[in-house]
Amino acid sequence: MFTDPIDDVAQVFTQDPRQVLGIFIALVGAVFMSVGAQLQHRGVVKVEKSTAHSDSGLNVKQLGLLIARPSWVLGTSMLGLAILLQLISLSLAPLIVVQPLGAVALVITSIINARVTHKGLNRASIIAVSMCVGGVGLFVTIAAFTAIDKPVQTDDLIIILIILAVVLLVFAAAFIFLRRRFKALFYILGAGVLYGFVATLAKVVINRVQNGNFEWLTFVCLLGLLLAAGVGAYFVQNAYSSGPPDLVIAGLTVVDPLVAVTIGIVVLGEASQAPLWAMIAFAVAGVIAIWGVFLLSRVHPQQLVDDVIDAPPSGERAIKPV
Question: Does the predicted model carry a pTM greater than 0.70?
Answer without folding.
Answer: yes
